[in-house]
Amino acid sequence: xxxxxxxxxxxxxxxxxxxxxxxxxxxxxxxxxxxxxxxxxxxxxxxxxxxxxxxxxxxxxxxxxxxxxxx
Length: 71
Known about the structure:
mainly alpha, 6 helices, about 75% helix
């Protein structure tokens, strides 16, 4: 949907050039605040899809599973 696509683009803009520690500190509430518009609960779910993917990647890096799959 348009909300998830726009939020994903904004997330990319937000995280570009930041270190992993900074990315881990980015909460869902912080990210939603960067969107700058109120969203219904359903649209918040759409908006957080990219954020959830980012945090899943960060979790896999933290537990080492990303490195084991690349090998």
